[in-house]
Input
Amino acid sequence: MSLPPEILKKVKLIEISTRKMVNNLFAGEFNSAFRGQGMTFSEFREYVPGDDVRAISWPVTARTGKPYIKIFDEEREMTLLLAVDVSGSSDFGTGDYFKGEVLTHVAALLGYSAAKNKDPVGLLLFSDQVEHFVPPKKGRAQIHRIIRDLLYFEPKSRGTNISVALEHLQKFLKKKTNIFIASDFMDTGFEPSLRLLANKHETVAVIVNDPAEKQLPNLGVIDMEDAETGELITVDTSSAHFRRQYEEYIQNQRATRDQELKRSRVDQIHIDTHEDIAGPLLQFFRRRNRR
Output
């Protein structure tokens, strides 16, 4: 199926800007932040003085009558999986880009960073269901496909259920993987699934927020539509009492979200739709490199 010219143009523009940032800012940062995080079993070798006794394989030693140790090789290749929220709330934004567009640029930056290291990259798009899945694969063509899908794919649902996406990844990913979950995380109850996934894989939450979600502007009487359910309500934003209640609701919602993420022991990257996306990502990579 051929893509509209405007989509192809967007893909090219994102590629040009993203690859420039990767080459100028992210060179080596992504690589050193994640390289060598996994170890794979290579072989058994007979113990020699000086070897770490903790590496002794007691079952093999018992069978052979001689001490043997396990040899592991550092994993030089690390798979990247981008799990991106395409629910209705991603169509909101008061800056130059909607939240979904910001997530697309984040995914492109991460994807090109991994591709530069010749790592496989995959994509999962989710709402309250698994909408689309691209198995990990190497190469520039794979990144092009991922960006096209992020720009062009039309989700079937507008709701959000993060647990569904996490459970799908838990079943599909057999090898240790670097997973970036890009969402506004306007959901609850995902902590058990996230904790299970994070126990096996390097898992990072990329959280995108818009300032207008936190502080409602004074626009008088307006109709507000829930981006995911389509429900319409009429509110008076000139009311200081209403704006205060709204801000308290958002603060409580974000506090619950942050608690679930913290308890799940995943790293967090916070990105604002009004700010440059490269800064928070770069800070995250450098913070990991100092560990």
User: Anything to note?
Assistant: The CA atoms of residues 5 and 263 lie 45 Å apart.
